[in-house]
Fold:
Amino acid sequence: LREGTATIRRRRITWDGDDRIESSTSWFSAELAAQAPRLLSTERIRTGTVGYVEEQTGRIARYARDRMTARAAGEEDCAALGLAHVNAPVLLVEHIVYDGADSPIEFAEAIYPPGRFTAEQRYEPYVGIMPAALRLRWWKNCGEKGRVSMMRRRRDVGFCMACFPRSMQVS
Structure:
């Protein structure tokens, strides 16, 4: 969606018992309001918002792109997630769903508190040159200056949430 475009915004807090484990916001083009009016409601859409848009408009989701980054929580994040300290590390996941014409259907942001999200990948070793889109590197930021390539062989790597916002880069 272009800056200044009218949008529909849906916000959710996900709970696990008494704990808030996710704060998420989705944006849709305001043009969908006539065809998919339930997007304007605060009620849960059981089929999911993208499935609902598909049913109502005939637009089919073809692929999605996710981007993850860690950052310091702001006041709004703290209020939404029940965090005691501004600047606590949180994980931000941006998720964009595209249709067959490469037009975005949904742009979503999900924010997770420390200790509530784990990313895991499974991959096979590559022979020869690996495509650039699959290279993942981790710059250690705990007093070490070396770089470790994660895709040369399977490795399980841990990190502390205190330094994670500065330590993970994707190239």
Notes: Helices lie at 49-57, 75-81, 164-167. The CA atoms of residues 38 and 44 lie 9 Å apart.
